[in-house]
């Protein structure tokens, strides 16, 4: 998924796609207005009877559908492509619309969202069979596109917390806040296994071992509910596990997308290792949690068994999508392609469409080329290059999800939980999640917890930057620095415990009289391959951060360093100067949770979900490696007792 306004700077044939969109639309609309359209379904059609089992309803609806209606169900457009001419939803018989990161209504409020989604829904219900629209969104750490939503720590922090029950609770809140604004479908959780911290999506992973990721898949239950019938309720959504499979296990330097170095690259492996490390979380997602949809990865797989050098894009991988996922694992939901991802498959557009649908992709996220996609797939079916049986299988899966969500009975947004969005109760859960995610890596002389009302000197931009502590996928795709969402910064939190706080972003203010120095270092926001190391990013601390550590730790007797980042950074040469070192990850909107452990209100209990490298060139390093010698090992984390030092 990506940001709609940056839609395909790196994509092949962006201008061709734009051109085709313009030329394809009139013919698609003309086709829909053809006089011999079949009659509308009778009001008492079996598919409209909610007492019937879902498979019966699906079968009844499917037999009434034309090929055009079926292909429409397989198509998903970006709201930015249809918002100016919403009749496209009716004309193309679209099955789905999505919001990419930052694709928001002009009125970015709960009501503004719900009104927009309902307006699109009205256009879908104007079609002959009144098949409701499914609206998808990336609520990857809370409903991040909505200003005012509760923004939780990114997944890597929750992997550090190692609390599956808390992850379930967080995702239940995310589902409730999201569905109350319209979208019934979340493109999450990422069940990626991060094997190289140079990957720009590292923070979207719960950790580096499949076992840890599987423990955190309770989040699927938070999204969808415990029973299949729970998805009909206004507080649950359809979940999507992504990115199937191997997205976090690609070889550094193997990406061919723009200036990315590792994201969307190639996983070079043998089948046995791939199943054990990269596919294992999907088995749990399907068999234990009944996840509703799966999103393939932009990345490719190159099997060692047949010699390296012939990678296959995951969106074209019939063996893994149809053979393994739908066959061996038994996935009965639907496969949704990633943002324009089929356009990375070799060949012309017709080849890309044919290859991916035959490989097992069911719904197609073709954000700005939906009309072209519809026209192309129709031609492929009519030419016999895609079988009707494959189309019917895809549509059957998509319709089943819509019936399970109760959309035929209640297509419009149920807004009853809108007033819980960003509520004190929801923020309290987020604050607890932040506290539990903090990992104490060094604590010389019991420097932590701090005494309340100590004279604290705070340095570093990340101590007081809401956007930096929230990271990517917040309001926009890449996220941004600054005061972009309501919440508390880490500095706000520290001020809740001490009335004597001096803050100096660049440590230029005098340090005299301070009992303790707190230096907050870290990263600025990024998402996906934009954050890949080597693409303008590094695991090393910035010069400004190093200077702040040197200055404050050299001047104040007790010196605590916090790292606000989406992945471990290289601190090897500065560690000796610090009395205490804490990994704070990307806490989200409730920075006060960091202060809760600093001052002992809550104990430190987080443990590293990834191995901490000594140097950037030590990557990839993972627990179980033969010459395993990290700075801090996987699972490391010191504890403090609650209430110490009050």
Oligomeric state: single chain
In what order do the strands lie side by side in the largest sheet? 12-17-16-15-13-14
Rounded to the nearest angstrom, the distance between the terminal CA atoms is 47 Å
What portion of residues belong to β-strands?
5-15%
- Quick one: overall form? globular
Largest sheet: 6 strands, mixed
Work out the radius of gyration: 25 Å
Structural class: alpha/beta
What report would you give on this structure?
The protein is an alpha/beta fold. The protein is built from 20 helices and 17 strands. The strands form 4 sheets. A 6-stranded mixed beta sheet has the order 12-17-16-15-13-14. The protein has a 5-stranded parallel beta sheet with strand order 4-3-2-1-11. Helix 16 (424-437) packs across helix 20 (592-598). The longest helix has 19 residues, at 14-32. Residues 3-36 have low confidence and may be disordered.
Brief synopsis:
The chain is of the alpha/beta class.
Task: Label this structure with key terms.
single chain, 646 residues, alpha/beta, 33% helix, disordered N terminus
List the helices and strands and how they pair.
Elements: H1 14-32, H2 54-64, H3 67-73, E1 75-78, H4 79-82, H5 87-91, E2 96-99, H6 110-124, E3 134-137, H7 155-161, H8 164-179, E4 185-186, H9 210-215, H10 218-224, E5 240-244, E6 266-269, H11 271-287, E7 293-296, E8 300-303, E9 312-313, H12 318-328, E10 334-335, H13 349-359, E11 364-365, H14 370-382, H15 388-404, H16 424-437, E12 439-443, E13 456-459, H17 466-470, H18 490-495, E14 501-504, E15 516-522, H19 543-555, E16 558-564, E17 580-583, H20 592-598
Parallel strand pairs: 1-2, 1-11, 2-3, 3-4, 5-7, 6-8, 7-10, 13-14, 13-15, 15-16, 16-17
Antiparallel strand pairs: 8-9, 12-17
Helix pairs in contact: 1-14, 2-15, 7-16, 8-10, 8-16, 13-14, 16-20
């Amino acid at each position: 998924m990506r940001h709609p306004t940056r839609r395909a700077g790196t994509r092949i044939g962006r201008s061709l796609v734009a051109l085709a969109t313009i030329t394809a639309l009139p013919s698609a609309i003309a086709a829909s207005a053809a006089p011999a359209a079949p009659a509308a379904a009778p009001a008492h059609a079996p598919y409209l009877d909610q007492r019937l089992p879902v498979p019966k309803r699906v079968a009844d609806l499917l037999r009434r559908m034309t090929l055009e209606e079926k292909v429409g169900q397989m198509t998903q457009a970006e709201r930015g492509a249809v918002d100016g001419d919403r009749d496209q939803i009716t004309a193309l018989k679209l099955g789905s619309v999505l919001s990419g990161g930052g694709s928001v209504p002009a009125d970015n409020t709960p009501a503004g969202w719900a009104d927009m989604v309902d307006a699109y829904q009205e256009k879908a219900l104007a079609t002959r069979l009144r098949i409701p629209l499914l609206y998808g969104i990336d609520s990857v750490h809370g409903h991040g596109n909505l200003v005012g939503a509760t923004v939780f720590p990114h997944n890597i922090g929750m992997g550090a917390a190692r609390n599956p029950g808390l992850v379930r609770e967080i995702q239940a809140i995310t589902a409730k806040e999201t569905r109350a604004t319209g979208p019934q479908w979340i493109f999450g959780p990422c069940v990626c296994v991060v094997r190289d911290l140079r990957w720009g999506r590292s923070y979207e992973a719960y950790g580096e071992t499949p076992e840890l990721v599987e423990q955190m898949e309770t989040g699927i239950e938070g999204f969808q509910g415990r029973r299949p019938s729970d998805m009909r309720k206004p507080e649950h959504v359809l979940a999507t596990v992504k990115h199937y499979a191997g997205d976090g296990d690609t070889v550094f330097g193997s990406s061919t997308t723009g200036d990315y170095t590792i994201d969307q690259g190639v996983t070079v492996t043998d089948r046995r290792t791939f199943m054990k490390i990269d596919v294992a979380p999907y088995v749990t997602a399907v068999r234990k949690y009944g996840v509703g949809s799966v999103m393939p990865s932009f990345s490719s797989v190159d099997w060692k068994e047949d010699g390296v050098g012939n990678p296959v894009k995951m969106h074209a991988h019939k063996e893994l999508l149809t053979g393994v996922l739908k066959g061996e694992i038994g996935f009965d939901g639907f496969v949704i392609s990633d943002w324009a991802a089929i356009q990375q498959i070799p060949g012309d557009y017709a080849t890309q469409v044919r290859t991916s649908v035959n490989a097992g992709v069911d719904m197609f996220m073709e954000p700005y080329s939906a009309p072209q996609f519809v026209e192309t797939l129709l031609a492929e079916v009519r030419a016999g290059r895609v079988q009707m049986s494959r189309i019917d299988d895809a549509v059957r899966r998509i319709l089943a999800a819509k019936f399970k969500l109760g959309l035929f009975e209640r297509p419009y947004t149920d807004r009853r939980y809108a007033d819980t969005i960003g509520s004190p109760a929801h923020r309290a859960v987020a604050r607890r999640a932040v506290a539990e995610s903090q990992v104490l890596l060094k604590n010389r002389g019991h420097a932590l917890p701090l005494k309340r009302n100590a004279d604290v000197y705070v340095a570093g931009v990340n101590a007081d930057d809401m956007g930096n502590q929230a990271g990517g996928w917040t309001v926009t795709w890449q996220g941004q620095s600054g005061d972009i969402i309501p919440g508390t910064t880490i500095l706000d939190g520290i001020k809740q415990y001490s009335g004597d706080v001096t803050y100096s972003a660049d440590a230029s203010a005098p340090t005299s009289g301070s009992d303790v120095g707190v230096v907050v270092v870290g990263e600025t926001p990024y998402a996906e391959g934009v954050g890949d190391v080597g693409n303008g990013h590094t695991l090393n601390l910035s010069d400004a951060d190093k200077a702040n550590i040197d200055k404050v730790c050299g001047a104040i007797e007790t010196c605590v360093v916090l790292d606000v980042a989406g992945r471990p950074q290289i601190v090897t040469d500065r560690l000796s100067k610090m009395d205490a070192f804490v990994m704070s990850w990307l806490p989200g909107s409730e920075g006060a949770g960091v202060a809760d452990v600093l001052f002992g209100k809550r104990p430190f209990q987080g443990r590293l979900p990834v191995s901490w490298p000594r140097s950037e060139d030590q990557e990839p390093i993972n627990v179980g490696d033969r010459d395993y010698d990290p700075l801090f090992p996987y699972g490391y984390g010191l504890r403090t007792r609650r209430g110490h030092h009050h």
